[in-house]
Amino acid sequence: MLEVSRIDVFYGEVPALKGVTLEVLDGESITVIGANGAGKSTILKTISGLLRPQTGSIRFDGQELNHLPPYDISALGIAHIPEGRRVFPELTVLENLEIGAYLPAAKSKRRESLSWVFEIFPILQERATQFGGTLSGGEQQMLAIARGLMLRPRLLMLDEPSLGLAPIMAETTFEKIDEIHKQGISILLVEQNVVRALTLVQRGYILGNGQIVLQGKAAELMANEQVKDAYLGI
Predict the structure, then answer these.
(1) 8 φ, ψ to 5°?
(2) Among 23, 36, 60, 148, which residue's beta carbon has the most beta carbons within 10 A?
(3) 168 close to 134: Cβ distance less than 8 angstroms
């Protein structure tokens, strides 16, 4: 479904990604793992159209994304949940969710989508009239994910969803991501909790200095001595 082929991305003259290739199959969940500054968030931003590859190509269902504006990429069915949640603090939970359904196709299904995300995140229905900025960190993360789901995406990209959350809220977030995937939505996950990420997905890519250095099935990566030493603390 998603094909990223040998992309190079620069910040000014500084290379951020070098020859990165990865794919996400329809209905698949994958993770990208790497140290801080390895380029994980850059991959998601480039797929979303917030950054442009200098070389290489990105295709979604065979359609080239390289030169499309971000809103057109979203319209194809790609939702990007950025690091840091970034909810609108002075809007209510309901208003935040309605903004997620801004595209015409999503807007026509807004009522149905609200019922759907409230089933996944019942706490948001309880908080519907509460301002986004008054929610806890875990609730804001749920709101950010739910806002992305209002787009009715086929691919949900999540950037560090457990960052800054208490362990119990992080685990709840992971459980919700798994629930969303089981409903048929493909997942591309960037996550600092490597062990939990690899138990959640089917395949993974290891990113080092802007390059893919290892890839494989999640179980294979969990058993890999290099991964154990560098990322799992085993």
Answers:
(1) -115, 130
(2) 148
(3) no
Dihedral sign (CA 172, 40, 20, 56): positive
Distance CA 216, CA 8 (A): 22
Residue 39 forms part of a structural domain? yes
Instruction: With respect to residue 174, please indicate whether it lies within any of the assigned structural domains.
Output: no
Q: Where are the alpha helices (DSSP H) in 183-228?
A: 194-200, 218-223, 225-227
Residue 4 vs residues 46, 66, 79, 151, 214: alpha-carbon distances, Å:
10, 10, 16, 22, 16
Amino acid at 158: L
pLDDT tens readout for residues 120-146: 999 999 999 999 999 999 999 999 999
Q: Residue with structure tokens 């290489």?
A: 56
Instruction: Take residue 115 and report the two structure tokens written for it.
Output: 């019922």
Question: Is 82 within a domain?
Answer: no
Give the pLDDT mean for 200-214: 94
| Nearest-angstrom CA–CA distance, 30 and 74 | 19
Residues 15, 59: one domain? yes
Place of tokens 């989508």: 113
Residue closest to 120 by CA, chosen among 102, 85, 83, 145: 145
Q: What is the pLDDT of residues 42-88, one digit of tens each?
A: 999 999 999 999 999 999 999 999 999 999 999 999 999 999 888 99
Radius of gyration of the chain (CA): 17
pLDDT at 233: 57
Q: Give tens-digit pLDDT for 20-43.
A: 999 999 999 999 998 888 899 999
CATH number at residue 210: 3.40.50.300
CA distance 162 to 171: 8
